[in-house]
Specification:
It contains 13 helices and 12 strands. The protein is of the alpha/beta class. 40% of the residues are buried. InterPro entries: HTH_LacI, Lambda_DNA-bd_dom_sf, Peripla_BP/Lac1_sug-bd_dom, Peripla_BP_I.
């Protein structure tokens, strides 16, 4: 009959106590790096697997974390999830992934479902339709560990990690100006999102610093977050109208960039009239037509940091009162333009 490997077997083989083995497998700070290495290597050698039910009962934890994103098909979010999983699984946590599809109602249902499944904590990137945060604040006040990534909210004091959106937007807009473009449209996400506000501020600051008068007609918000192609088509027609005459376009999200390129690919006349910089983490962005310059976010690293922050909250033996918001650099990739 098959018998699973045990902590006692590892302890006997390495001549250490079972409690030392247990702490080493949990990555306890009480155990030296050398001992942890010996234990982990031997555990892998004999194919040791922890008993999740026993661990859960002992620690009063489920050893699972919930993740809420807008859309896993979005390249940015799929990459953040990969980063989350790389940390979570190594630390012994299972990951339960849910999607809001940018719906407030679905966000409320999914977060409630995760909490009812007794996850140890939740990683959240806000829906573009969410303006009421009570479904989150109530869980936070009851002590559920919550960490925000990418789309964050200021109302809750906890760990947060996002892109340096102001800097990325500023650099993208400034580069368009330096390349000779003056009338720069800004295709923005839903106005209440943190990323929308921060990227708009970067865009406006770049215009001001280069002494370009702000024209509010050059800003269009996409309240559907890129889920409505018609909304984006109408914005493009507005920017290219004779009364506006935009020369370039700064697009403020991955999904908006993807849908815009799809529209322009089917309308070469419009594509020739606009130089575009957009946020995009697509793996095929460099071969898309028409050409687009882009800002790539550190999505995988963001996921890793968010998971580390959440696990720190979950495993802390004492209440945590000091939090940080980490800002990650975006990488700007310029792909040339007709004005050289």
């Amino acid at each position: 009959m098959f018998q699973a490997a045990t902590i006692k077997q590892i302890a006997e083989a390495l001549s250490i106590s079972p409690s030392t083995v247990s702490r080493a497998l949990r990555n306890s700070h009480e155990i030296s790096a050398e001992t942890k290495k010996r234990v982990i290597e031997y555990a892998k050698k004999i194919n040791y697997q922890s008993n999740p039910i026993a661990v859960s009962l002992r620690n009063r934890r489920s050893n699972s974390i919930g993740v809420l994103v807008a859309d896993v098909a979005n390249s940015f979010f799929s990459q953040t999830i990969n980063g989350i999983e790389s940390i979570a699984y190594e630390a012994g946590y299972h990951v339960i992934i849910t999607q809001s599809h940018d719906s407030y109602e679905r966000e409320v249902i999914n977060i409630g479902h995760l909490a009812n499944r007794s996850v140890d904590g939740i990683l959240i990137s806000m829906s573009s339709h969410t303006t009421d945060y009570r479904h989150i604040t109530q869980l936070h006040e009851r002590g559920l560990p919550i960490v925000f990534f990418d789309r964050i909210i200021e109302e809750i004091q906890t760990f947060k990690v996002t892109t340096d959106n102001f800097k990325s937007a500023y650099e993208a807009t400034a580069l368009l100006i330096e390349k000779g473009f003056k009338k720069i449209g800004h295709l923005a996400n839903a106005p209440q999102l943190s990323i929308t506000v921060e990227r708009l501020q970067g865009y406006l600051s770049a215009l001001a610093d280069h002494h370009i008068e702000f024209d509010e007609r050059l800003i269009k918000y996409c309240h559907e977050g890129g889920r409505s192609q018609l909304e984006i088509e109408e914005a493009l027609n507005h920017f290219l109208s004779d009364s506006i005459g935009a020369e370039a376009l700064f697009i403020a999200s991955d999904r908006l960039s993807t849908v815009t390129m799809r529209i322009l690919n089917n309308d070469p006349d419009k594509a020739e009239k606009l130089m575009i910089i957009g946020f995009s983490n697509s793996d095929v962005i460099d071969i898309l037509s028409p050409r687009i310059s882009y800002i790539r976010q550190s999505a995988f690293e963001m996921g890793q940091i968010a998971a580390q922050m959440l696990i720190k909250l979950i495993e802390s033996k004492y209440p945590v009162y000091e939090f940080e918001t980490r800002l990650l650099e975006g990488q700007l990739h310029w792909r040339g333009n007709p004005k050289g």
